[in-house]
Structures are given as C-alpha cells and as structure tokens.
Amino acid sequence: MSLFLATILRVQQEGLKLNRVGIWTDWSRVSCAILLIMRSALLFLILFPAVIAAQESNPDQLLKHAIDEQLHGDFLAAIRDYRKVLELRPNEVEAEVNLGATLAHIGKFDEAIAIYRSALTSVKDKNPVLLNLALAYYKKGDFEHAREQFEILRDAQPETLQVVILLGDSDLRTGKPDAALRLLEPLENKYSQNMDFEYVLGSALIATQGRRRDGVARMEKVAKATSSADAYMIAGATLLELNEYEQSRQDLEQALALKPTIPGLYTLVGTARDKTGNVKEAESSFREALKENPDDFEANLYLGAILYKRRDIDDAKVYLDHAVRLKPSDSMARYESAMLKSTSGDYETAARELESLVKDDPDWLEPHVELATLYYRLHRPEDGAKERQIVESLTAKQQAQGPGK
C-alpha cells in the first residue's frame, strides 16, 4: 500500500471513529486535508527520482557508499558502484584500485589484473598497487607473473618480509628452488622466528638435492611451533623418502592426530607403519585411505602386497589388479601382480610379466630371483641356470657397493 493511500485510509478511519462517539465531522476540512496530502505525495513522487539521480551523479557520495559496501561484504554492490564512480570520474584512482581488490576477492582475477595495470599508469606510489597486482597473479595460480611483480617489489622494498616470503614461494612454485635458497638463506638469522619464512625456506631445502634433511629440520620446527598438520606431513613424507622410517612415522602420526582429513595422509601413515613393522595398523590405514579415495594407487598397491604376503590371494588380487589398472606401467605394481600369478599357479603369465620387468630394469634383483624358480617349474632348466648366474652376479655387485649405495 502506498503512503498516499495509507494516509487517506487513516483519515477516513479516524473520521468514522469520531462519528461513533457522536461528534459531527466537518468533511470539508477532511477534504482539504486529503488534498494537501495528495499534493505532498505527488511532490514527493516527482522529487524522489531527482534526489536519487543527484546522489548517483555525485561521485564522492558514490565512492563513499561503495567503500561502505565493500567493508560490509556486499561485493557485488560495491563493484556496481565503483564502476559508476569510474563512469563519472574515469581518473579516480581510489575507485579503480578498490574495484580491482573487490574483483580479486570474488575470484575475477583477470579483470582485477587489467584494472591494476591501468591504475599503475596513474599513481605516484606504485608499490601498493604492484603488491595487489602480484597477489592477484598469485591467487590466480599464475606464479611466473606473480614472481615478476614480487621481484620488482623486492628491489624497491628489500626489507618487506611479506614480499620476500611470497617471492621465495613463487620461486618454488615455478621450479626454481635454487633461486628461493639464494633469496632466503642469507636472511634466516634475521627472520628465523617467523614461521612463514621458515616454512618456505624448509620447502626450498627439501626441494634441493643434498639439503633435504636440513629442510626437514625447518619443517619440524614450524610444525611444533604452530601445530601444523601440513608441516608434519611434509616432514614425514620427506623422511619416508630418505628411509628414516621411525621418525617419519612419528611425524605422520602427529599430522594424523591434528588433521586426519588431509588427502593422502592415511596412505603415508600406512606406508610408514608398514616400513616400521606394524603391519596390522598399516593395513588399517590403507583401508581408511581407500574409503576416502578408492583410486588411491599406493593404498591399493600396499594393501594388496600385505594381503599377498598373508596369502589372502583372492582379496590381494582385487587390490593389485586395480593398482595395475590405475598405473599399468608402474614397475612395483607389475612385480606384485606377477608374484601373485606365480603363487596362484599361473606360471606362464607370471614369467612373461617378469621377463618384461627385467628387460626394463636389468639390475633389479628380485624379478630375476623369481624367474629362476619359475623357469625350473616350466621345465626350462637352461633359462633357469642363466637366471641363477644373473642373480649371483647382481648379489655380488650389491654386496660390493655396500648398504645404502
């Protein structure tokens, strides 16, 4: 109901009320009142669009309104009003930069980047806009262009820690761990208590051959200081690759206690448990991993191998066959699958698959050992004798090299 109709109704209702209590109403006065209200209402209707138009044509009011919308999280309204400001005042840098920030916030990075680049031509202090531009590239996942902007900022503001950290991280994400190390390592004494700095430095060290154990030390420091499941997981996964199984298991168990929902974590925990001899808990971990992701290759492979060693052949076959389907060229999956066939009595197929493996990797001892046995079962004694000679030669070679070489 309009204001005008509501007022007339109110006046009529009041008139009826007066009549009920016995007071005669002067309807001429009421008619005059109604006419006055009508004139006011019509005047309001005429003037209201003009007021709105005046507000919308005032760029200062619009800018203030847009900033308020942005601060209160009404980003679409803010974008609309910043655009109106720029239509009225194309060189309004504050509106341009704020529009870029709002667009970046809702994920429209390409539009934000274009606006920031346009704003750079108009501002005297370019560093804040350059930082926004670099962050837009970074959040978009365009780390090469982000790195370029962070380098410019680092040259202009070498003491700005945020820029140093993000530049180092961008180096890492573009496959330049050596550049990250050159940037970060000389600054560690100064920033060793900043865990973001240590996290990126640790990541750079882990990515550098010969420095991985140093990287684990930094990552464990971050994990303990911040209770970071991600940092514990990275440290544990790296130690697993370095064959430091007990410490790996401890770090991965810490990650699991803090955040069991990290993708891939149960598989890593299962692997570490398996390597430290806790097969029962390893099996449980792999089963949890497969609940989250039935196509987890490593979980299928390791669980299948555990079941095979237990001679649970039917269940083992399910997981090993799936592992081979997921990665048909993976050597370990092919080896476990061939061993399962050998145990199941399918000697011909097992021999063919093991022959393919030793052709791809002639120095892999275990397939040669199984082939020597299979050839005798297949009544191929000459081939079996040759394989025994290869096994003896490879064994002697490994013993000469010593453990871990």
Identify the notable features of this structure and list them briefly:
elongated, Serine Threonine Protein Phosphatase 5, Tetratricopeptide repeat, mainly alpha, single chain, 405 residues, 23 helices
Could you characterize what this model shows?
This protein has 405 residues and is an all-alpha fold. It is built from 23 helices and no strands. It has helices at residues 3-20, 27-56, 59-71, 75-88, 93-105, 109-120, 127-140, 143-156, 161-173, 177-184, 188-191, 195-206, 212-226, 229-241, 245-258, 265-275, 279-292, 297-309, 313-326, 331-343, 347-360, 365-377, 381-401.
Briefly summarize what is shown.
This protein is mostly helical and 405 residues long. Among the domains are: 59-139, Serine Threonine Protein Phosphatase 5, Tetratricopeptide repeat (Alpha Horseshoe), CATH 1.25.40.10; 301-340, no CATH class; 345-405, Serine Threonine Protein Phosphatase 5, Tetratricopeptide repeat, CATH 1.25.40. It is 79% helix and 0% strand.
* Topology pattern, helix = H, strand = E: HHHHHHHHHHHHHHHHHHHHHHH
**What is the SS-derived class?**
mainly alpha
Shape: elongated
End-to-end separation in angstroms reads: 88 Å
In the CATH hierarchy, what is the class of the domain at 59-139? Mainly Alpha
Helix content: over 70%
Low-confidence stretches: 1-35, 41-55
The name of the CATH topology of the domain at 59-139 is Serine Threonine Protein Phosphatase 5, Tetratricopeptide repeat
- Please report the total strand number as a whole number: 0
CATH architecture of the domain at 59-139: Alpha Horseshoe
**Can you count the helices?**
23
Largest sheet: number of strands, sense, barrel closure? none
Overall pLDDT metric: 88
Computed CA radius of gyration, to the nearest angstrom: 37 Å
Give the CATH H-level superfamily of the domain at 59-139. Answer: Tetratricopeptide repeat domain
| Percentage of β-strand residues | under 5%
